[in-house]
Model the fold of this input.
Amino acid sequence: MTQHLPTRAQATRFIGVALGAAALLSLTTVLSRADDGDPRKILKSMSDYMAGQKTLSATYDADIEVLLTPELQKIQFTASGSVLVDRPAGLRATRTGGYADVELVFDGKAATIHNRDGKAFTRIEAPGSLDDLIHRLRAEHMVEVPGADLLLAKSYDQLTDDVLDARHVGRGVVDGVECEHLAFRTSETDWQLWVEAGERPIPRKYVITSKTVAQAPQYTLRIRELRTDVRPDPSAFVFKAPDDTKQVALDAIGDIDEVPPGVSAGGSK
Done:
């Protein structure tokens, strides 16, 4: 009887399956032992700490992964930006990527969205708190503030509202900082959060995976630096339109999404 040796592709596939099974077994073991910390308690400490900061500033990188059809190829788009918060006074946030350069300025009375590439801005009346602004932009205008879920005064309530399962996976390191790695599940998403270990439980990384969109696209927010000792000048929350910029209605602001026009950004939050 002639013995047929496996081809390179068959051997690679066999090794891949074996390694995948081993990784799955290892992950199952890790999750079964992930009982050293209470994930909800760690999340609550992060929420309380963030809410207790009157002012803060952060820089971040964001990745959004989308599925391009009909090829079913995953492509990741990346942006960077900054956030400056003074809870009584306002908010200033930026996001710069390959397809949009956007600025959001809030002074407690109105929010200005500035499409810097498109040389246009729109003003939305939004009197109230930072939380009021985040909810209004999301519900009425489908506009997201970077890391909005982490900035809310009651972020714990928002994040855990529909959680079905919560786990403390263990420890991880993000940008050289040791963090508590938490994993949560809802009916529509799986999301993970890395919270800095120690006396300053700030969020370091936030990953959201959609379960309702094919191929499970992901949104990742990585906070590179977060400071709570800032004292913003009140002028930071006053929008001054450049000379070559015109005011328009929101539906005429132009493309300000994180992905190119025509691409669905499933999995973002």
About this structure: The chain has one domain: 39-252.
